[in-house]
Amino acid sequence: MTNHVVAYSRENGGRVILLFLLFFLAIYEFYTAGFPAFAIICVLPFIVLFAYWTFKFGMFAFWALIIINYFVQFKLLHLPVPISLPNEMMQLLILGIAIIDARQTPHFGRSVNIMLLAIIIWSIYCTLEVLNDTCGLGIDVGRWYSGARLLAYQLVYIFLVFSICITSPEVLMKYLRIWAILTLISAIWTWKQQRLGLTPEETSFLYGKGSTTHLLQGGTLIRYWSTFSDAANYGCNAAAAAVAFVVFGITSRLKKDKFFFLIIGIFVIKSMFASGTRTAVFCMFAGFAVYIVLSKSIKIAIPASIIGGLLLFILAFTTIGQGNQQIRRMRSAFDKNDASSNTRSINQATMRKYMQDAPWGIGVGFGQDNVPSNNKFRKMATIPPDSEYVFIWLRTGKIGITVFIITMLIMLAGACYIVMFRLKNPSLVGIGGGLCSAFVAIQFGGYANQVLMQYPNCLIFYGGLTIVYLLPYLEPAWIEFERKQLAEQEERKRLKLEKKLASRV
Q1: 333 pLDDT exceeds 90?
Q2: Cα torsion through 59, 65, 70, 75, rounded to 10
């Protein structure tokens, strides 16, 4: 046995020494810094292996990013590192490889547009927030960065990664299909939670941390959250995703894609109701309303408006479906006397009084862990914001929330302009319109719930808007790609008809 170890060490000495060094470093970090640092050291070999696969297989890191981002908050998974770390590591790896490869293949030329400008403006403001000492606790760069990278810097990473990776119609369609499949998996898991029951981890969440928000009406109504962090996060995501898939389906010229996206979209809408997230209804209708405008089509606008108006009328002014608990929950969104809405109004009135003395906000990264109980703004650091927009307002002030809203409108307006006036291919207009509509839908969700910067929403919907800015570059190749797909579709149809006729002889 010893001889085998010695022989192996002679042949692989460098790797053996490296593994021993990593092992001792991991033990040292565990002793001095605790388990998180120990875990990070332990995953270093996997990071190296991951980087090797990315160099070898090109798009490996991007597809891994999409999948891992989607399930990073799944309660059956227990990551030994901060949940933001896998995303950041993969995004920086993709950007690093693109920079190394820039001499042979230019990657960043398509990224110079109005969306990048808007993200840079917002990022500059969040960078200046490092100087914000409203709470009188001094400047803490670590605290500030932990907040700024989630509020702003991740938008930069997402924009650049999608600009680099979505390079052809084939990659675009593969991304949309993977997104649809991931959403379908979450919808199926919702069905599983309803029909087959919860796992021990999910049961612990439901009767523990989530008991006040997910177990309602005396325990008779459960708000299901699927593979997400909570029901509000899932409901808003499902609403926005369903809008995109339905639009993709009705505008696709390929039958297989039409049925694929429409079926998934309808199934996801059904799962959205199981979340009990009342805001999701408004998200969905807002998304479809945006697409009606972007389509510039009377044939789409009239029937869609009639159907949408009828559904809103049923929810707001009738008792149809009142026997279903989820529908009753959704219908309460139209109740002006709803207790939940009144509580939010009271909380926001309290916030306004405090925020008069904090035009720059209490500071990015401040929360209950770093604002002492005797501080004037302790209440602002601990009060539930119940909304991404309110959360940003509290941290960056009225100046910050104004900058944020303006930059969001700028990037949305630029994307809508591309869909309405620059794209000519109808199915590509459908993809762009669906992505713009989904972005508006999730923004509505962020107005009422703290979901906009949550995983997996930020990557999906800001990445989707980035794709809209890439569509004019892809349109010539898309036309040829679609022509070949349609030719293959017609050929399959012809062969099927010939086989059918031959069987009758």
Answers
A1: no
A2: 130
More confident residue, 102 or 18: 102
Rounded to whole angstroms, the Cα distance separating 125 from 119 reads 10
The Cα 240–Cα 226 span in angstroms is: 16
> For residues 71 and 237, what is the distance between their CA atoms, to the nearest angstrom?
13
409 in Cβ contact with 473 (< 8 Å): no
SS (H, E, C) 40-82: HHHCHHHHHHHHHHHHHHCCHHHHHHHHHHHHCCCCCCCCCCC
Q: What is the pLDDT of residues 17-58, one digit of tens each?
A: 444 444 444 454 444 444 455 455 555 566 666 566 565 666
Q: CA–CA separation, 301 vs 291, rounded Å?
A: 9
Total length of the chain:
505
With vertex at residue 345, the alpha carbon angle to CA 343 and CA 349, rounded to the nearest 5 degrees, is 120
CA distance 483 to 324: 46
Per-residue pLDDT band for 465 (boundaries 50, 70, 90) equals very high
Does the predicted TM-score (pTM) go above 0.90? Answer: no
SS3 string of 147-199?
Answer: HHHHHHHHHHHHHHHHHHHCCCHHHHHHHHHHHHHHHHHHHHHHHHHHHCCCC
Question: For 252-297, where are the alpha helices, taking DSSP H only?
Answer: 255-274, 279-295
Convert 340-365 to b/e letters by CB count within 10 Å (16 or more is b). eeeebeeebeebeebbeebebbbbbb
**Rounded CA gap, 70 and 299, in Å?**
35
CB contact at 8 A, 135 and 362:
yes
Give the position of tokens 């995983």.
Answer: 455
